[in-house]
């Protein structure tokens, strides 16, 4: 999906292996919250963006699991690369999608992405050079790693002995269990003055008032955690999940979207990003979602890790 919210690579097939080598040392598990499973639900009966497949609400049964409290940081991903020699898909392809206003040098832009002129392909943009040649992530070690594909995220998850969460697990954790709420903090709507997370303030894409203090990504613990202890489940960066993207609707646009998603093997992302705003991309709600091909990467896509609960352990 080459949509408003993130740049898509488009074909879904890199033709390269991205898993960590078998000789690599195992990575360290991050701080987690234990999440009680049981009968719960995913989606909503009150969808806002119908074509995204936010509804209908449907019941699911979840096992207990653990979810890391924050998205994987640049510093932690660097440790993974150092230990495994992993080369990301953006590095292999030689380019990635960058939010053009982040560029110090507009001449680096090599062309728009789809119908979204604020996205551009930048040769040499990677997780360690987020805006391409001349940029560096060295001063963002506590920010979420970006320019990582679904395949890259799965390779990291394997390294630490975890996995990507399912969409239902992600929503269940964000809602704080089996209850209906619009955001991880409750139902209060964020505005340009009431700040709960890192999203756009002002008029997109021409003016960001920076009321939250950030133009791009923010450190992974920039805002207070929700009551369970999770940071930034809304805003900052889109988070890859393990699920394929599907729309449950019989409408013709939905069928066409499903055909496209299957063709590109699209995966679900959750949480919205620093580019979201109610007037433009109202996708920082818990039920909101987006689909991208698994080889896509951009300035605002990242991930966090889930873990299965051992069979002899139960979450209280």
From TrEMBL:
Ranges where the Sulfatase-modifying factor enzyme-like domain occurs: 31-306
Residues covered by region (Disordered): 1-30, 294-316
Organism: Rhizobium puerariae
Organism superkingdom: Bacteria
Name of one Pfam family that matches: FGE-sulfatase
Name of the protein this chain belongs to: Formylglycine-generating enzyme family protein
């Amino acid at each position: 999906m080459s949509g408003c919210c993130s740049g898509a690579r488009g074909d879904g097939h890199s033709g390269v292996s991205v898993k960590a080598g078998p000789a690599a040392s195992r990575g360290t598990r991050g701080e987690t919250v234990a999440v009680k499973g049981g009968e719960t639900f995913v989606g909503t009966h009150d969808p806002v963006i119908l074509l995204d497949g936010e509804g209908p609400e449907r019941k699911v049964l979840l096992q207990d699991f653990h979810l890391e409290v924050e998205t994987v940081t640049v510093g932690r991903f660097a440790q993974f690369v150092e230990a495994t020699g992993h080369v990301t898909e953006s590095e292999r392809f030689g380019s990635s999608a960058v939010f053009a206003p982040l560029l110090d040098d507009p001449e680096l832009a090599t062309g728009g992405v789809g119908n979204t002129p604020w996205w551009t392909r930048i040769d040499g943009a990677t997780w360690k050079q987020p805006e391409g040649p001349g940029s560096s992530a060295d001063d963002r070690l506590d920010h979420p790693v970006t320019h990582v594909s679904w395949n890259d995220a799965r390779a990291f998850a394997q390294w630490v002995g975890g996995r990507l969460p399912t969409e239902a697990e992600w929503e269940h954790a964000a809602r704080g269990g089996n209850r209906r709420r619009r955001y991880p903090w409750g139902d209060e709507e964020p505005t340009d003055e009431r700040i709960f997370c890192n999203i756009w303030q002002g008029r997109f894409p021409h003016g960001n008032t920076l009321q939250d203090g950030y133009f791009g990504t923010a450190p992974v613990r920039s805002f207070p955690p929700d009551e369970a202890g999770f940071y930034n489940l809304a805003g900052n960066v889109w988070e890859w999940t393990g699920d394929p993207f599907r729309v449950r609707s019989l409408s013709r646009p939905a069928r066409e979207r499903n055909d496209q998603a299957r063709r590109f093997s699209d995966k679900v992302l959750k949480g919205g990003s620093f580019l979201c705003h109610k007037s433009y991309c109202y996708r920082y709600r818990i039920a909101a979602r987006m689909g991208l091909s698994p080889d896509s990467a951009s300035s605002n896509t990242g991930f966090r890790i889930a873990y299965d609960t051992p069979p002899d352990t139960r979450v209280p």
